[in-house]
Amino acid sequence: MQFLPEHTYHVYNQGNNREPLFFERENYLYLLKKVEKHLVPHVDILAWCLMPNHYHFLFQVKSEYDSSDNIQESNKVGTLNRSIGILQSSYTQAVNKKLNRSGSLFRARAKAKSLAQESKTHNDYGVNCFLYIHQNPIRAKLVTKLEDWEFSSYQDYAGFRKGKLCNQELARDLFKLPIDHKEFRAFCKQTISDEFLVDF
What we know:
Elements: E1 8-14, H1 25-38, E2 43-51, E3 54-61, H2 79-99, E4 111-114, H3 115-118, H4 125-139, H5 154-157, H6 168-175, H7 181-187, H8 194-197
Antiparallel strand pairs: 1-3, 1-4, 2-3
Helix pairs in contact: 1-2
């Protein structure tokens, strides 16, 4: 994927053969630290959710990102692509060492969708993507309430936690999100159209 400054992307990946990526709470927290180290210098995180066997991140590339270092040539991989690769490989190495295992945890490469491209065929793709990411734990029947899943940015937006990974101000501006916590919680309960869910 060619990442462009001030463009918004949905990036996601899953475990090999849909096997687990996270085995204990510390694994989730460790990946988030890696996100802060490797991705946040280049992007503003808008939403995220870590599931037992996959992850989702919605982010906007920062305006100062050098897209000239992002041209997809046979021998050149862009800075952000490299950062995502390092994020996954360093996480895998740490988990393998702790669990005395070997091999890759992730599918080879993360997938990325440009909201600019997807919006051409889906109305309100950005908002639907934001909702989809936060509703994942309920859809997977891991919890019955969004606030009960610790490993997503929902708790921060809904006022249950004061996490700082997301640029909430930017997300509210882009997706016209409610500022009031109660209004936001109600907003996140809306149903996502089947047309959007087909892509996932």
